[in-house]
Design goal:
- The protein has 194 residues and is an alpha/beta fold.
- The protein is built from four helices and eight strands, in the order H-E-E-H-E-E-H-H-E-E-E-E.
- It has one domain.
- Strands 3, 4, 5, 6 and 7 form a five-stranded mixed β-sheet that branches. Strands 1-2-8 form a three-stranded mixed β-sheet.
- A hairpin with a 2-residue loop joins strand 5 and strand 6.
- The protein is rod-shaped and about 125 Å long.
- It starts with a helix and ends in a 6-residue tail after the last strand.
């Protein structure tokens, strides 16, 4: 009987091994392998092309404009570049300088003619929030005029509009009824007269 029992146990072991091979090992070896997709690392954003522009801010003593180099996005067309430069000019100044543009002022529109004239349409804040005073108005006007004419030499003159309309002045001192040429008289330079 022990032979029979040994034979039965051997047959059972063979049956279990066969069942394991038939139902577990073979299906695993013939099963489709899971596809591991290699995911490429996300491409870094394309470096935005920039240019260096000279922006103008009020000096610490409040008596002059100071030119500051700042990178601004590149514009394919002159109109696009002018917009980018004016938008940068309307942004926060670097400390300890101050902005000559009244707070909240935005660029509504910008136009360039074939004669090399730009028309910069500012929001009403350019007038309603202007502090007044001749020097402050000169700084506001020539910040806009100079930032365009210095950085884009093809533009010779700039006229400031407010809310899409021509205005006589921003605060009663500078005549804005005609396009103005650049005026670097108020720009502070590092060179002292000898």
């Amino acid at each position: 009987m022990s032979r029979r029992l040994a034979a039965a146990l051997a047959i059972a072991a063979i049956a279990i091994a066969g069942a394991w091979i038939l139902f577990i090992a073979l299906p695993r070896s013939y099963a489709p392998k899971p596809v591991v997709q290699a995911t490429a690392a996300p491409a870094p954003p394309a470096a935005e092309r920039k240019i260096t522009a000279t922006l103008y801010f009020v000096s610490q003593d409040g008596l002059a404009l100071v030119g500051v180099q700042r990178e601004v996005p590149f514009g394919e067309q002159m109109l696009d570049q002018a917009r980018q430069i004016v938008e940068a000019q309307l942004s926060q100044p670097p400390a300890p300088l101050a902005s000559a543009i009244p707070p909240g002022t935005t660029l509504r529109a910008l136009y360039i003619t074939d004669r090399g004239e730009a028309f910069v349409d500012l929001s009403s804040d350019a007038r309603t929030k202007h502090p007044g005073g001749a020097i402050d108005e000169i700084f506001t006007v020539y910040t806009i005029v100079n930032v365009i004419t210095v950085n884009l030499p093809a533009i010779q003159r700039v006229q400031i509009l407010v809310d899409g309309k021509e205005v006589d002045t921003l605060a009663g001192h500078v005549d804005l009824r005609h396009p103005l040429q650049k005026n670097l008289k108020w720009i502070k330079t590092d060179k002292e007269p000898s």
